[in-house]
Amino acid sequence: MRKPPLNLKVLESFCAIMRVGTVTEAAKSLHLTQSAVSRQLAQLEDALGMSLFLRDKGRLLPLPEAHELFKEADFTLSGFDRIRHLAEDLQSLSVAKLRIVGTQGFIDGILAGAVTSFMMTFPDVKIFLDSRSAETVIEQVAGRAVDCGFVKSPLTNPLLSIEPMFSCGTVCAVKREHPLARLDVITARDLHDMPLILLGKGRSFTFRGFLQQAFHQAGAYMNIKAETHTVSTSCTLAAGGIGIAPVNELMAQSYRHMGLAFIPFHPVITHEFSFITSAQFPPSRVTQAFLAHCKKYFNQIKKPSQG
């Protein structure tokens, strides 16, 4: 018996289920009926000749094969979006479009200001912002699913054109009422046995390694109270008095309104970020304009740390 062919609608329904976790929520996000999404999932499993989920009391639990398929399907759909957007650009040259991708903390934090000021200068440009893991940012830029992206350095990839954007140090986010907020600098010894809020190992392993080295050399105990994946969450917890959060100096500035002091950490731990585009094709004029704007913007907002 001939298996039903795969199509984009089937993959879109599958990816929506993987993102939101249920058929009901996937149907809402796609503006389809629940039965239509269920049929498309059944069609996909029939075409593949395997089950992708465990059914448990109405819940769908993804199998390992579902996670593998999702990674490729999501990347493929991003490519089709690129084709669709390109077709729209060819039909109307009066409105330029710029697709930008970065990690969640970067997109939600300091990049928003750069995008806002860019759009004030170029009001006809339409911006598409997306947040992904660092690995997916690199894949999407190299595969031209987006126009440009931002990643932490150092980075070497022959498929990418890499432009250093900015570097900055590390600060400790502490409540302004905390005794350490009165210091000019904070060292690992100052943080001995203090409750710490650290970025998780999976997201910032190099930064975590430098911190551990500083504590080891100072003979200080690292009392990890909480681990997070973003600077925003770390600062929120610090503002709530949970602990002290060593974070990226520049990205922390977006959270100064939380009643936090940002005290430089010594020894200096540097964070470097780069602007990346595909090395296989020259960037568009709007991408080049955005690059130039970001260089100027980040140079202007980079200031010495203050409490």
From TrEMBL:
This is Transcriptional regulator. SUPFAM superfamilies: Periplasmic binding protein-like II, Winged helix' DNA-binding domain. PANTHER family: TRANSCRIPTIONAL ACTIVATOR PROTEIN LYSR (PTHR30427). It comes from the Bacteria. The keyword Transcription regulation applies. Keywords: DNA-binding, Transcription, Transcription regulation. The keyword DNA-binding applies. Pfam families: HTH_1, LysR_substrate. InterPro entries: LysR_HTH_N, LysR_subst-bd, NocR_PBP2, WH-like_DNA-bd_sf, WH_DNA-bd_sf. Residues 6-63 form the HTH lysR-type domain. GO terms for biological process: positive regulation of gene expression. Belongs to the LysR transcriptional regulatory family. One of its GO terms (molecular function) is sequence-specific DNA binding.
